[in-house]
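Structure first, sequence second, as always.
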């Protein structure tokens, strides 16, 4: 049995982000990163906004200072300052993290199927490939939706699911300085459906079709929606698909426990780091990693972590209820949100990082009927 100070069970965004913070803060600690296999493909793209520089500038592909929005009879180009919008490709982040961690003699990677995590009073143990590793603390991001005991009578369960095409055109078709955050010029079909356009150059962009719903589409339906949007809305007739990206993000207001044992802490999606009403997670993971490091420094343990304010948890539940019951209204709701608020206020609301007065201005800008109905329904169900 080999002994480590910290074991990361799962080597995705959450595990690698925390491992980087750990070696930067505690360079003499022994760290073990476990994963099923090395990540060698561009399996996802992360976008986030921040008033701070990107935490991974060497892995950041695009930085934007403006965003476009297209809604119901309303469109606008927003100037983001003091925010910026960042794009990091999965493969670039993995390469950056591997290079940094592999250069540290106190970091070890082990790949295979994790057999289980157990603990005693003073340590936790992880089994992989028939090997037994012991750590003072284990941080697990091993999210398995099949192992989450759901309670549909009390909580909401939606999926944010998407397919993106990275396309290349023969002629210049994109403004590389102007991504599209939301474009609702696609058939809604009773659900919240929109497009992203993230341009890498004048001839290259990631065009992504995103839906919020309880169930998935067929592969053909995703492809048809993308093809229709590119040809009919973007007016691009000749293009080549260079890569395809798929994803499913769980969106639920069911609280997930952070502590899985006295010495086991859940991180990433398993630790509830996905924003329930938007699906954004990458920057929340970075902030969570910082909070874990701060707790280790101040308390000698990683367990003293901040919680989302109660009002934002209520807002998430209301928004999920509206999406579930009034999905056909979401394009109009988002249009009013962006029509009636500066983008900085919207970002602050989604970041759960502004005053109650600012939050009230957001709520006052939205159509009251669907939110009032949803709030009453939550009260009748005993959820508030």
């Amino acid at each position: 049995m080999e002994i480590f100070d910290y074991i990361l069970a799962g080597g995705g965004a959450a595990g690698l982000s925390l491992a980087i913070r750990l070696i930067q803060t505690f360079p003499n600690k022994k760290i073990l990163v476990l994963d099923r296999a090395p990540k060698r493909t561009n399996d996802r793209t992360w976008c986030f906004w921040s008033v701070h520089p990107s935490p991974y500038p060497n892995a950041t592909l695009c930085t934007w200072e403006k965003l476009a929005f297209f809604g119901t009879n309303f469109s606008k180009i927003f100037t983001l300052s003091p925010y910026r919008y960042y794009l990091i490709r999965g493969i670039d982040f993995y390469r950056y993290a591997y290079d940094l961690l592999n250069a540290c003699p106190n970091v070890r990677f082990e790949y295979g199927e994790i057999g289980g995590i157990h603990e005693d009073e003073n340590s936790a143990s992880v089994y992989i490939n028939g090997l037994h590793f012991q750590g003072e603390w284990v941080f697990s991001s091993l999210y398995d939706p099949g192992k989450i005991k759901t309670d549909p009578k009390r909580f909401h369960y939606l999926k944010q699911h998407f397919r993106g095409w990275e396309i290349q055109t023969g002629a210049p078709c994109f403004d590389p300085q102007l991504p599209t955050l939301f474009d609702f010029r696609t058939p809604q079909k009773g659900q919240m459906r929109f497009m992203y356009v993230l341009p890498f150059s004048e001839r290259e962009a990631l065009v992504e079709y995103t839906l919020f719903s309880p169930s998935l589409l067929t592969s053909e339906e995703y492809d048809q929606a993308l093809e229709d949007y590119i040809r009919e809305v973007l007016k691009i007739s000749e293009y080549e698909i260079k890569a395809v990206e798929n994803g499913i993000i769980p969106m639920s207001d069911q609280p997930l426990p952070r502590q899985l044992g006295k010495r086991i802490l859940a991180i990433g999606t398993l630790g509830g780091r996905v924003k329930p009403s938007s699906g954004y997670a990458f920057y929340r993971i970075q902030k969570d990693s910082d909070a874990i490091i701060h707790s280790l420094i101040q308390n000698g343990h990683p367990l003293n972590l901040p919680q989302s304010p109660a009002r934002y948890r209520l807002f998430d539940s209301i928004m999920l209820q509206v999406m579930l019951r009034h999905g056909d209204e979401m394009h109009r709701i988002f249009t009013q949100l962006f029509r009636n608020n500066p983008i900085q206020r919207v970002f602050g609301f989604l970041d759960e990082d502004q005053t109650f007065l600012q939050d009230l201005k957001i709520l006052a800008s939205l159509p009251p009927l669907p939110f009032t109905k949803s709030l009453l329904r939550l009260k009748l169900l005993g959820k508030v």
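Margin note: The chain has a mean pLDDT of 94.
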